[in-house]
Design brief:
This protein has about 220 residues and is an alpha+beta fold. The protein folds into two domains: about 80 residues, Dna Ligase, domain 1, CATH 3.30.1490; about 110 residues, ATP-grasp fold, B domain (D-amino Acid Aminotransferase, Chain A, domain 1), CATH 3.30.470.20. About 30% of the residues lie in helices and about 30% in strands. The chain is built from seven helices and eleven strands. Strands 1, 6, 7, 8, 9, 10 and 11 form a seven-stranded antiparallel sheet that branches. The structure holds adenosine-5'-diphosphate (ADP) and magnesium ion (MG).
Length: about 220
Protein backbone atom coordinates (compact mmCIF):
# COMPACT_ATOMS: atom_id res chain seq x y z
CA UNK A 1 0.00 0.00 0.00
CA UNK A 2 1.31 3.48 -0.83
CA UNK A 3 1.99 6.08 1.87
CA UNK A 4 -0.81 8.53 2.62
CA UNK A 5 -0.28 12.25 2.03
CA UNK A 6 -2.34 14.31 4.48
CA UNK A 7 -3.83 17.65 3.41
CA UNK A 8 -2.64 20.84 5.10
CA UNK A 9 -5.67 20.72 7.42
CA UNK A 10 -5.15 17.04 8.35
CA UNK A 11 -1.43 17.69 8.78
CA UNK A 12 -2.15 20.61 11.12
CA UNK A 13 -4.43 18.45 13.23
CA UNK A 14 -1.74 15.77 13.39
CA UNK A 15 0.97 18.25 14.45
CA UNK A 16 -1.18 20.35 16.79
CA UNK A 17 -1.28 17.55 19.36
CA UNK A 18 2.50 17.80 19.83
CA UNK A 19 2.39 21.53 20.52
CA UNK A 20 4.10 22.62 17.31
CA UNK A 21 3.62 26.37 16.88
CA UNK A 22 1.24 27.13 14.04
CA UNK A 23 -0.83 30.18 13.16
CA UNK A 24 -4.55 29.98 13.96
CA UNK A 25 -6.79 28.45 11.30
CA UNK A 26 -10.35 27.34 10.69
CA UNK A 27 -11.39 24.74 8.13
CA UNK A 28 -14.54 25.80 6.28
CA UNK A 29 -16.41 23.07 4.36
CA UNK A 30 -19.07 25.28 2.73
CA UNK A 31 -19.55 28.91 1.64
CA UNK A 32 -22.68 29.26 3.82
CA UNK A 33 -20.57 28.82 6.96
CA UNK A 34 -17.64 30.97 5.85
CA UNK A 35 -18.41 34.17 7.77
CA UNK A 36 -19.75 32.49 10.90
CA UNK A 37 -16.86 30.01 11.30
CA UNK A 38 -14.09 32.55 10.75
CA UNK A 39 -15.44 35.24 13.11
CA UNK A 40 -12.82 34.49 15.79
CA UNK A 41 -9.87 34.97 13.39
CA UNK A 42 -8.08 38.32 13.04
CA UNK A 43 -7.72 39.99 9.66
CA UNK A 44 -5.67 40.02 7.48
CA UNK A 45 -6.39 36.39 6.60
CA UNK A 46 -5.08 33.83 4.12
CA UNK A 47 -7.41 31.46 2.23
CA UNK A 48 -6.21 28.10 0.90
CA UNK A 49 -7.91 25.52 -1.26
CA UNK A 50 -7.95 22.04 0.28
CA UNK A 51 -8.14 19.30 -2.35
CA UNK A 52 -6.34 15.99 -2.85
CA UNK A 53 -5.87 17.18 -6.46
CA UNK A 54 -3.82 20.18 -5.35
CA UNK A 55 -1.01 19.13 -3.05
CA UNK A 56 1.00 22.20 -4.11
CA UNK A 57 -1.69 24.77 -3.57
CA UNK A 58 -0.07 27.86 -5.05
CA UNK A 59 0.64 26.04 -8.35
CA UNK A 60 -3.08 26.20 -9.14
CA UNK A 61 -3.82 29.63 -7.65
CA UNK A 62 -5.00 27.97 -4.45
CA UNK A 63 -3.55 30.48 -1.96
CA UNK A 64 -4.94 34.00 -1.47
CA UNK A 65 -3.10 36.43 0.82
CA UNK A 66 -4.15 39.78 2.33
CA UNK A 67 -7.86 39.05 2.77
CA UNK A 68 -8.92 42.21 4.62
CA UNK A 69 -12.64 41.87 5.39
CA UNK A 70 -15.77 39.70 5.17
CA UNK A 71 -16.54 40.82 1.64
CA UNK A 72 -13.09 39.76 0.45
CA UNK A 73 -13.61 36.40 2.17
CA UNK A 74 -16.72 35.78 0.08
CA UNK A 75 -15.13 36.88 -3.21
CA UNK A 76 -11.99 34.93 -2.25
CA UNK A 77 -14.08 31.77 -1.93
CA UNK A 78 -15.36 32.21 -5.50
CA UNK A 79 -11.89 33.04 -6.82
CA UNK A 80 -10.41 29.85 -5.33
CA UNK A 81 -13.15 27.70 -6.88
CA UNK A 82 -12.67 29.46 -10.23
CA UNK A 83 -8.89 28.98 -10.09
CA UNK A 84 -9.42 25.30 -9.28
CA UNK A 85 -11.85 24.88 -12.18
CA UNK A 86 -9.32 26.49 -14.52
CA UNK A 87 -6.92 23.70 -13.54
CA UNK A 88 -9.46 20.92 -14.04
CA UNK A 89 -10.31 20.51 -10.34
CA UNK A 90 -14.05 20.00 -9.92
CA UNK A 91 -16.09 21.23 -6.93
CA UNK A 92 -16.58 17.64 -5.74
CA UNK A 93 -12.80 17.29 -5.46
CA UNK A 94 -12.63 20.28 -3.11
CA UNK A 95 -12.93 19.45 0.59
CA UNK A 96 -13.20 23.06 1.65
CA UNK A 97 -11.17 26.17 2.35
CA UNK A 98 -8.58 26.60 5.06
CA UNK A 99 -8.87 30.15 6.42
CA UNK A 100 -5.98 31.26 8.60
CA UNK A 101 -4.34 34.29 10.14
CA UNK A 102 -1.65 35.95 8.04
CA UNK A 103 1.77 36.13 9.68
CA UNK A 104 4.19 38.95 8.95
CA UNK A 105 7.55 37.26 9.15
CA UNK A 106 10.96 38.90 8.99
CA UNK A 107 12.19 35.70 7.38
CA UNK A 108 11.19 32.21 6.36
CA UNK A 109 12.77 28.85 7.03
CA UNK A 110 11.79 25.34 6.13
CA UNK A 111 11.85 22.42 8.51
CA UNK A 112 11.71 18.90 7.11
CA UNK A 113 11.75 15.45 8.67
CA UNK A 114 12.75 12.24 6.97
CA UNK A 115 12.86 8.77 8.43
CA UNK A 116 16.25 7.32 7.53
CA UNK A 117 16.68 3.54 7.49
CA UNK A 118 19.96 3.76 9.41
CA UNK A 119 19.75 6.94 11.49
CA UNK A 120 16.02 7.11 12.18
CA UNK A 121 14.40 10.58 12.23
CA UNK A 122 16.59 13.20 10.53
CA UNK A 123 15.67 16.88 10.66
CA UNK A 124 16.48 19.18 7.75
CA UNK A 125 16.67 22.92 8.20
CA UNK A 126 16.77 25.13 5.12
CA UNK A 127 16.34 28.65 3.90
CA UNK A 128 12.75 29.12 2.85
CA UNK A 129 11.25 29.40 -0.59
CA UNK A 130 13.16 28.95 -3.81
CA UNK A 131 16.43 29.88 -2.10
CA UNK A 132 16.77 26.34 -0.78
CA UNK A 133 17.00 24.83 -4.27
CA UNK A 134 19.16 27.64 -5.51
CA UNK A 135 21.74 27.74 -2.74
CA UNK A 136 21.44 24.24 -1.28
CA UNK A 137 21.48 26.13 1.99
CA UNK A 138 20.58 23.28 4.36
CA UNK A 139 21.72 21.71 7.61
CA UNK A 140 20.96 18.17 8.81
CA UNK A 141 20.68 16.77 12.30
CA UNK A 142 19.83 13.37 13.72
CA UNK A 143 16.92 13.46 16.22
CA UNK A 144 16.57 13.93 19.12
CA UNK A 145 18.29 17.32 18.77
CA UNK A 146 19.66 19.11 21.82
CA UNK A 147 20.19 22.87 22.13
CA UNK A 148 23.78 22.64 20.84
CA UNK A 149 22.71 20.69 17.77
CA UNK A 150 20.07 23.30 17.02
CA UNK A 151 22.52 26.19 17.39
CA UNK A 152 25.03 24.46 15.14
CA UNK A 153 22.38 23.89 12.45
CA UNK A 154 21.14 27.48 12.66
CA UNK A 155 24.68 28.81 12.35
CA UNK A 156 25.27 26.68 9.28
CA UNK A 157 22.45 28.00 7.13
CA UNK A 158 23.03 31.45 5.68
CA UNK A 159 19.33 32.17 5.54
CA UNK A 160 19.06 32.02 9.32
CA UNK A 161 21.94 34.46 9.76
CA UNK A 162 19.79 36.97 7.92
CA UNK A 163 17.41 36.62 10.88
CA UNK A 164 20.06 37.70 13.37
CA UNK A 165 19.68 41.33 12.38
CA UNK A 166 22.06 41.42 9.40
CA UNK A 167 22.88 45.04 8.36
CA UNK A 168 20.17 46.70 10.36
CA UNK A 169 17.43 44.29 9.24
CA UNK A 170 14.82 43.56 11.93
CA UNK A 171 15.91 40.71 14.19
CA UNK A 172 13.83 37.55 14.06
CA UNK A 173 12.48 35.70 17.10
CA UNK A 174 15.31 33.13 17.21
CA UNK A 175 14.25 31.84 20.63
CA UNK A 176 10.82 30.93 19.29
CA UNK A 177 12.44 29.30 16.25
CA UNK A 178 14.71 27.21 18.50
CA UNK A 179 11.75 26.06 20.58
CA UNK A 180 9.84 25.17 17.43
CA UNK A 181 12.73 23.08 16.08
CA UNK A 182 13.07 21.31 19.44
CA UNK A 183 9.34 20.56 19.52
CA UNK A 184 9.48 19.11 16.00
CA UNK A 185 12.45 16.93 16.94
CA UNK A 186 10.69 15.66 20.09
CA UNK A 187 7.55 14.91 18.10
CA UNK A 188 9.63 12.98 15.56
CA UNK A 189 10.81 10.69 18.35
CA UNK A 190 7.37 10.29 19.96
CA UNK A 191 5.32 9.43 16.88
CA UNK A 192 6.16 6.43 14.75
CA UNK A 193 3.51 6.51 12.03
CA UNK A 194 4.94 9.36 9.94
CA UNK A 195 7.26 8.85 6.97
CA UNK A 196 8.00 12.42 5.99
CA UNK A 197 7.02 15.88 7.26
CA UNK A 198 7.46 19.30 5.68
CA UNK A 199 6.83 22.61 7.38
CA UNK A 200 7.33 24.97 4.48
CA UNK A 201 7.41 27.74 5.27
CA UNK A 202 7.96 28.50 8.92
CA UNK A 203 7.59 32.28 9.26
CA UNK A 204 9.76 33.89 11.92
CA UNK A 205 8.27 37.05 13.39
CA UNK A 206 10.20 39.97 14.91
CA UNK A 207 11.78 39.35 18.36
CA UNK A 208 9.14 38.45 20.92
CA UNK A 209 6.46 37.76 18.30
CA UNK A 210 6.95 34.05 17.72
CA UNK A 211 7.63 31.65 14.87
CA UNK A 212 4.85 29.75 13.15
CA UNK A 213 4.57 26.95 10.62
CA UNK A 214 2.01 28.31 8.14
CA UNK A 215 1.99 25.26 5.86
CA UNK A 216 2.37 21.59 6.71
CA UNK A 217 2.50 18.32 4.84
CA UNK A 218 2.62 15.01 6.72
CA UNK A 219 3.08 11.69 4.95
CA UNK A 220 1.81 8.72 6.95
CA UNK A 221 3.69 5.47 6.56
CA UNK A 222 1.91 2.39 5.28
CA UNK A 223 3.57 -0.89 6.10
CA UNK A 224 4.22 -3.12 3.08
CA UNK A 225 1.94 -6.08 2.61
P1 LIG B 1 1.84 25.60 -1.08
O1 LIG B 1 0.95 24.39 -1.00
O2 LIG B 1 1.85 26.19 -2.44
O3 LIG B 1 3.21 25.31 -0.54
P2 LIG B 1 1.56 27.48 1.18
O4 LIG B 1 0.54 27.21 2.21
O5 LIG B 1 2.98 27.20 1.55
O6 LIG B 1 1.11 26.69 -0.15
O7 LIG B 1 1.42 28.99 0.73
C1 LIG B 1 2.22 29.53 -0.30
C2 LIG B 1 3.01 30.75 0.21
O8 LIG B 1 2.10 31.74 0.74
C3 LIG B 1 3.93 30.42 1.39
O9 LIG B 1 5.17 29.95 0.95
C4 LIG B 1 4.03 31.76 2.09
O10 LIG B 1 4.99 32.58 1.46
C5 LIG B 1 2.65 32.35 1.89
N1 LIG B 1 1.76 32.06 3.06
C6 LIG B 1 1.01 30.96 3.24
N2 LIG B 1 0.33 31.02 4.40
C7 LIG B 1 0.66 32.19 4.98
C8 LIG B 1 0.28 32.85 6.20
N3 LIG B 1 -0.59 32.30 7.05
N4 LIG B 1 0.83 34.06 6.48
C9 LIG B 1 1.70 34.63 5.61
N5 LIG B 1 2.10 34.07 4.45
C10 LIG B 1 1.58 32.86 4.12
MG1 LIG C 1 4.14 25.51 1.28
Amino acid sequence: MPDIVLSEVESRRYLEKSGISMNRFVFVPGRDELIELTRTLRFPLVMKLISPKAVHKSDIGGVLLDIANENELLTGWDTLFANAAAHGIRPEDIEGINVQEQIRGVGEILIGLKRDATFGPVLVLGSGGILVELLKDVALGICPLNDNDIDRMLRKIKGSRLLEGYRGKTKGDMDALRVLIKTVSDMAMDMDDWQEIDLNPVLVGPEGQGAFAVDARVVIRRENG
